[in-house]
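Q: My hope is that you can spare some time for a protein that puzzles me. Underneath my words sits a plain record pairing an amino acid chain with its backbone structure tokens. Those tokens are not coordinates but codes from a learned vocabulary of shapes. Thank you; the sequence and its tokens follow:
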Amino acid sequence: MDPLNVTLKQYQDDFIFGPAKYKFLKAGWGTGKTLALILAALNESEAYPNNRGVIFRKEFEDLRDSTIKDFEQYTGLKVNSARECVINGSTIMFRHLEEMNNLQNMNLGWYGIEQGEELDTDEYLFKLNGRLRKDNSGRKGYVIANANGHNWIYKLKQNGIHDPETKQRLDAHYAATTFDNASNLPKDFLTSLEAIKTSKPNIYKRFVENSDDEADSKDVIIQPAWIQEAAKREIIPRVPIRRIVSIDVARSNPGEGDKTVFYAIENFRQIGREVHETRNTMEVVGRAMIFAKKMGNIKAFAVDEIGVGGGVADRLAELGGEDAYDKNQVIFVNSSERAAGSGYYNRRAEVYDNGAHLFEDGMVQIDPTDEDLKEQLSWAKYKTVKSNGVYLVEPKEDIKKRYGRSPDNADAFLNGLWALPQARQVVVADRYARHSVRRHSGSPVGVLG
């Protein structure tokens, strides 16, 4: 097959020849993503004699058995034992993740990343961007990928890559569904997709419809589908009513990605949220007390006590009214301590597993406009299980490295779900009774509107 004698779809043409410096093609099965990347590589190699570029993939086996074989099949060219091919004096290299350091002293005229969704972060893209220094070259980057939820490619599309001087956007994103290339696909293949649509709708949405709402979630603790359902759900509070304010205090200074987050939760239903930059103990306590009063004079708090949070928890425990009911009830959450339940490596594992079961069982309601929470709840993955069989969750630092910020919203909310059953009951009478069993600041809470 002569790859230079094909009729391109518009999204392929834009990806190969468009003027943007960094170009992304996120598309479904059978859309010719790999062909487009190969044609882009050939175009860069022939347009600029003595050019040098690299096609990059995460795993060596995939690079060898898929990427290189596709290149040879489409072009009729041979990749040598050094995993290089020379065209017009230009070199096309094929490399994988572990060889990234070998490119650090090399100036490139272009690069391509195949199956970009296999990478956890944009770290390697920006490393390759830093190698685009070769004179007499287009100095462009090309990324092809399948949809994989709100991953790093999705976030780049939202935020953009900007020129630091002109502030102009340097990236362009193109997309296609399988049916956008239906004219080039076998009819029996297209027919077979109907069975997948019925039996595996999540796979169909991700790989055929190119939906960003579906992700590779086999290792994810709280599945994206459960979160989507929780955002649609309406829970009617039933007695007994428990309410709690859960607090995750920022561990780092402002500007480093951590936030102080408050969640108000009633019977596993999100009823309020606030986010602040501060990590000052007294300021956090003051803001938390104001927030709790606004949410119904809540007296129960769950506080992540590690670091600055310990001082916040201690001070909240000192505050409150004189009688037992009006005293603050503070539940200390130490994610690193040993869990009460057997089978968990630490409290963090217990908290996340508890949250996963509540979401899976349809017990949780979240605010559909709380985008940070909806995203962060699905960030944490299972960690390799220890030899003694205990349940592990990956460290918060690993999540922060992968997504560029801390999962503060998710941690605060899940801590609150875990602590809520320990909170004192605030309504014990029938929800539809005409009288109130307790008044806070003159407002009846026995009848909930």
In short: The radius of gyration is 27 Å. The CA atoms of residues 260 and 278 lie 6 Å apart. Residues 224-443 form a domain with the Nucleotidyltransferase; domain 5 fold (CATH 3.30.420.240). Confidence is low (pLDDT under 50) at residues 431-449.
